[in-house]
Amino acid sequence: MVIRREFRIVLPLTVEEYQVAQLWAVAEASKNETGGGEGIEVRENHPYETESGEKGQYTNKIYHLKYKVPVFIRTLAPAGALEMVEEAWNAYPYCKTVITNPDYMGKEKMSLTIETWHKPDRGELHNVHNLPPEKLAKRDVINIDIAHDKIKDSDYKPEFDPKKVASAKLNRGPLTDPNWRKTCEPHMCAYKLVTIEFIWFGLQGMVESWVQTAERKVFTNFHRQVYCWMDKWAGLTMEDIRAIEDQTQKDLNEMRKGGELKGTKEK
């Protein structure tokens, strides 16, 4: 069974600003989710070029999971099943990420693919991913409002509330107007096409449903942080970002070995 959903996230940023903002926020958020034996291990992070001439940055990461998935999966899954591999090809403004569990399930039984286009619009493009008619007919579109969509009480932090946070450096926000996505300047949209293929008898329906719910939660909370961290990443260059990523890779390896469990924990 295949599930396909397209999440559209409008932000009060330029496409150029978002490239820096996203990478800075990924590095910062990774540290907030790593510790106590769990979290993110960066194995590779380097430029790539394909035979067709596409250029970008390739990353390979392992997600060491146990308490970050629902208890019914933890109970039934054997050791090794909760270590996921993420490969990403960032040829901005297009990016592709593939998450698999090759050691236990194999790529043919479990894969989560996220393809993202970043465009200078407000989410009006009907088929930015150029899906053929048969796939387009089965695609669901979900629009995310980072300021006004409801989030879990346990996820709420006032410092990550776009309705309360404004940028002194960029002179933007807070996003108090319910119609801000239609009026904000500058503006851009991240179109994230999520495709899930999962074959595991007895768990398929539950896992697919949980992953899609988790993706919406991750996209919403992450982009709330991207916005609220504006004054931290504003003014940074891509050279600054690569240096931060190198240091973060070293930090994550140390943090994962010790300390306490951090970040999201599922029950």
TrEMBL record:
Membrane-spanning residues: none
Molecular function, one GO term: phosphatidylinositol transfer activity
Any single Gene Ontology cellular-component annotation: cytoplasm
Domain Phosphatidylinositol transfer protein N-terminal, chain residue ranges per copy: 3-250
Descriptive protein name: Phosphatidylinositol transfer protein N-terminal domain-containing protein
Organism: Patiria miniata
Lineage start: Eukaryota, Metazoa, Echinodermata, Eleutherozoa, Asterozoa
